[in-house]
Prior knowledge:
The chain is an alpha/beta fold. It has one domain: Alpha/Beta hydrolase fold, catalytic domain (Rossmann fold, 3-Layer(aba) Sandwich), CATH 3.40.50. The protein is built from 13 helices and eight strands. The strands form two sheets. The chain has a six-stranded parallel sheet, with helices on both faces. Strands 6-7 form a two-stranded antiparallel ribbon. Helix 3 packs across helix 4 (99-110) and helix 4 (99-110) packs across helix 10. The two termini are 38 Å apart. One 2-acetamido-2-deoxy-beta-D-glucopyranose binds at residues 110, 191-192, 195.
Amino acid sequence: MGITFQLCVLAFLLTFAGYSAGFKPVVLLHGILSGSENMVSLGQEIEREHPDTKVYNCDKFSGWNSLESAWRQIKEIGEYLMTICKLHPEGVHLIGYSQGGLLARAILQSFPDHNVKTFISLSAPQAGQYGTSFLHLIFPDLMAKTAFELFYSRVGQHTSVGNYWNDPYKQELYYEYSTFLPYVNNEIMSANSSNFKEGLLKLKRMILVGGPNDGVITPWQSSHFGYFNGSLDVIPLEERPIFTTDAIGLKTLSDDGRLVLVTVPHVNHFQWHRRKSLIRKYILPHLD
Ligand SMILES: *[C@@H]1O[C@H](CO)[C@@H](O)[C@H](O)[C@H]1NC(C)=O
Ligand SMILES: *[C@@H]1O[C@H](CO)[C@@H](O)[C@H](O)[C@H]1NC(C)=O
């Protein structure tokens, strides 16, 4: 009798513990010219507020290696993510910061068998990048206006930045040379286009975070798939063909209420993954 009762209590406690530990694992992907050390504080904040969350902080392609071509990084980091997905059939969440947010999105598209539930993109150049402030982080002497000469070449396409450099004045060269962004955005159709859409449509939620004081992502609306047109006016996501033609599933996600665009002012590029108030307000509520 006594033992049965104790077993019942134990079963109850285990069930209860099971519920309270019910947060899905979270995978973090760092930005350019940095590594997992940059994402530690975000991971710690998640563990503090959601105890027992298993955090996987990807340390692949740190530092200068983060300049390696996008497809190479996507393949290796994608295999790492798929290993984690298999360990957690209940699903995982994925957070990518800056370049890591763009790579993470392309990984979801390239590995449509993933089981990522919520994807959070923190100020990532989802529609590309065209601006000196970003360029100068890596290439101090290069000017945005002439960078196309380097990036839109065979050699330039060996760098991640070249892969998503989107010069609004040189769109013909962009389509001719870029081996990454026009493909993963289904602007150029390929054998993989249907996978690229399927991989995003699988998500339960896609949260795109960015803001006007970012200072690095140019235009900042690229974090929401907005982008410059040929006269440097920024066209918002809803008016761009990638959305209106539902090229990669963004419109479907939006119609279903699964796409959330978050605009936060007064946050510079190096604070998105660090500022606690932001993490608590815009990230944690989406991690269940
Ligand atoms: C695209 O498709 C080709 C041929 O089917 C395949 O070899 C390649 O790995 C695919 N790439 C991606 C990123 O899915
Ligand atoms: C860019 O968009 C603006 C605003 O919609 C428009 O006035 C302008 O003509 C467009 N420029 C080009 C080159 O399409």
